[in-house]
Amino acid sequence: MSYVITQSCCNDAICVAVCPVDCIHPTPDEPGYATTDQLYIDPTLCVDCNACAEVCPVSAIRREQELPDALRPYAGINAGYFAAARA
Ligand code: SF4
Ligand code: SF4
Fold first, then answer.
1. What was the pLDDT predicted at 85?
2. How many domains does the chain have?
3. Domain that residue 48 falls in
């Protein structure tokens, strides 16, 4: 399981600095940051520490198990961002 970034993300990257395993991307120093719709969490690396969710000003980060139905597609959207990057 993992944490998931959802629709209300405003790309301020506050969460990037607190993640202990650097699994939130794109970061402000990566090429895709300027054009991305939102940031994403790599579910293969996330250690479920909750640090990102505590600092997000818009409550965009949820535990995957606790996603409401309307936001459930974001689990696949987050994972898909990294799958595409590795392809
Ligand atoms: S802290 Fe929240 S709003 Fe900011 S980039 Fe992270 S998920 Fe998006
Ligand atoms: S829950 Fe922890 S490990 Fe997972 S993305 Fe958030 S800060 Fe990183």
1. 85
2. 1
3. 3-86
CB 4 within 8 A of CB 61: yes
Q: pLDDT by residue (tens digit) across 36-64?
A: 999 999 999 999 999 999 999 999 999 99
Q: Which residues contact 53 (CB under 8 A, 6 or more apart)?
A: 3, 59, 61, 62, 63
Measured in angstroms, how far is the CA atom of residue 35 from the centroid of ligand 2? 23
pLDDT of residue 1: 82
In angstroms, what is the span from residue 18 Cα to ligand 1's centroid? 11
Q: Which protein residue's CA is at the shortest distance from atom 6 of ligand 2? A: 52
